[in-house]
Amino acid sequence: MSTQVFYFVATLSIIFSLMVIFAKNPIHSVLYLILTFFTFTVHYVLLNAQFLAVVNFIVYMGAIMVLFLFVLMLLNLNKETEPSKSPLIKIVGVIAGGCLIVTLFGSLKAATITSPLILKNPGLGLVENLGKELFGPFLLPFELSSLLLLAAMVGAVLLSKKDEVEA
Amino acid sequence: MENLTTQMAGVPLNHYIYLCAIIFTIGVIGVLTRRNAIVIFMSVELMLNAVNLLLTAFSVHSNDPSGQVFVFFIMALAAAEVAVGLAIIVMVYRNTKSIDINVLNRLKW
């Protein structure tokens, strides 16, 4: 039963991510993207990466998706305003993607990593373990990422401010 | 939970790589075939998430927490990217009344 859970959730994530790019209405795309992220959270739980599961749930499904939905509804976009590419471009895009996946699978076949995934240390993905790592060797990148978030916040506010009338 | 995660030992590592390759490719196809700027952003998010999952799988495989710390940084970066990107899209919409990225090809000149 155990590995079946992985294959079931993996199938679901592939189906939902296909729906994201093939849904006509952008609102439906966002909703399918939320479902895709939910399946990713399940993957993290199965890998016993509990900290990442919680962060993925809060940051992606909470913050980022609300931002997407908010902008879509603010701009009042729906199926009627959806621009569509010519079928030729779509076919060429899908063929290019197919070539990419064939290349990736081919190179993976040459690598032959077939060893099963074994969780050697059950506490690997817990908050305690990651916190020690984050505030030990990764302290400087952690502080820099706070700077990055500050810069992004300032940039977003500056960009979405209306231009002052030139005096 | 403990039983489930100890039983997960059966999944081979390369099945995780296949899954992430498929989802990454779906993201690439989305970027190539859609013209709505917001859907293109969502496809980029799909690609970032595929990489996140693969980093976590490798981190568990090699018993090294650094991989999961990288995933944390990628999530922080994705949040920043989405905030700035959506602000730019709102700005573009305000000026052109459309979020069709083909409208932006006049930036070339």
TrEMBL record, chain A:
The chain crosses the membrane at residues 6-23, 30-51, 57-77, 89-118, 138-159. It catalyses: a quinone + NADH + 5 H(+)(in) = a quinol + NAD(+) + 4 H(+)(out). Signal peptide: none annotated. Its main location: membrane. It is found in: Cell membrane. It is an enzyme of class 7 (translocase). Its EC number is 7.1.1.-. Keywords: Cell membrane, Membrane, NAD, Quinone, Transmembrane, Transmembrane helix. NDH-1 shuttles electrons from NADH, via FMN and iron-sulfur (Fe-S) centers, to quinones in the respiratory chain. Couples the redox reaction to proton translocation (for every two electrons transferred, four hydrogen ions are translocated across the cytoplasmic membrane), and thus conserves the redox energy in a proton gradient. This is NADH-quinone oxidoreductase subunit J. It comes from Pedobacter chinensis.
TrEMBL record, chain B:
The keyword Translocase applies. The chain crosses the membrane at residues 15-32, 39-58, 70-93. Its EC number is 7.1.1.-. It is a multi-pass membrane protein. One of its GO terms (biological process) is ATP synthesis coupled electron transport. The lineage of its organism: Bacteria, Pseudomonadati, Bacteroidota, Sphingobacteriia, Sphingobacteriales. It is found in: Cell membrane; Membrane. NDH-1 is composed of 14 different subunits. Subunits NuoA, H, J, K, L, M, N constitute the membrane sector of the complex. NDH-1 shuttles electrons from NADH, via FMN and iron-sulfur (Fe-S) centers, to quinones in the respiratory chain. The immediate electron acceptor for the enzyme in this species is believed to be ubiquinone. Couples the redox reaction to proton translocation (for every two electrons transferred, four hydrogen ions are translocated across the cytoplasmic membrane), and thus conserves the redox energy in a proton gradient. NDH-1 shuttles electrons from NADH, via FMN and iron-sulfur (Fe-S) centers, to quinones in the respiratory chain. The immediate electron acceptor for the enzyme in this species is believed to be a menaquinone. Couples the redox reaction to proton translocation (for every two electrons transferred, four hydrogen ions are translocated across the cytoplasmic membrane), and thus conserves the redox energy in a proton gradient. It is an enzyme of class 7 (translocase). GO terms for molecular function: NADH dehydrogenase (quinone) (non-electrogenic) activity; quinone binding. One of its GO terms (cellular component) is NADH dehydrogenase complex. Keywords: Cell membrane, Membrane, NAD, Oxidoreductase, Quinone, Translocase, Transmembrane, Transmembrane helix, Transport. Belongs to the complex I subunit 4L family. It catalyses: a quinone + NADH + 5 H(+)(in) = a quinol + NAD(+) + 4 H(+)(out). This is NADH-quinone oxidoreductase subunit K. Its main location: membrane. It comes from the Bacteria. InterPro entries: NADH_UbQ_OxRdtase_chain4L/K, NUOK/Mnh_C1-like. Coiled coil: none annotated.
